[in-house]
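Entry for zinc ion complex. Fields follow.
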Amino acid sequence: MRSFEEDLQSAIAYHGHVCSGVVLGVRMARLGLKKLGIEEPHCYRDLIVYLEVDRCLSDAVQTVSGCTLGKRRLKLLDYGKLAATFVDISTNKAVRLAVVAEDLPQEGEDPVAFWQGVADEDIFKVENVLLEIRPEDLPGKPLRRVVCSSCGEAVLDGRELIKNGETLCFSCANTPYYRMMPK
Ligand SMILES: [Zn+2]
Ligand SMILES: [Zn+2]
C-alpha cells in the first residue's frame, strides 16, 4: 500500500497545485479503499468510483484510486457535492464518503498541515451503501453499438433512445448541449 505522502505527491503532481481539495481527496480515497480492504488499487480491476463533483478533490480521488473515465471505472455524477462512493464489484461492497468538515484553512495557511490536525471522523460522513450497476455501465467491451438514425453517429453501451420508433442518440432525442454555427 502506498503511503499517504506518496499518494499526496502524485495527486499534487497530477492536479498542479496543493490545496485543501487535493488533501481531502487523498484522505477520502485512502479511507474508502481501507473500508473496502483494497490495498493495491492500481493493480485492482474491480473498483469503481462514483464521484459527485468535478473539483480539486476529484483529481486526487482519481490518482489515488487509479480509477479513470477511460477504464469506465470513474463515473461522474454532477451533483456539486464533495462526496464519492467506492464500489468493489467483486463483492458488491460499497461505501459512500462525504465531506462534512466545516472549518477550512485560513487564507495563506498550509492545507497539508491544517488537515493533519483533523481526524477522519471529523472530516467525513461514512455510509455503507448498496448499488445496482447496470451491465452496460461496467468495464469491458461495449455491449451494444447502434447508429443514430438522425445524425448517423454511433452510440455505444445502450445510451440510445427510441422516439416514435426511431433509434436516436441523446442529442438528437433531446436538446443538445451545443448549437450549430451558421454556415
Ligand atoms: Zn486545487
Ligand atoms: Zn444523433
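NOTE: The mean pLDDT is 96.
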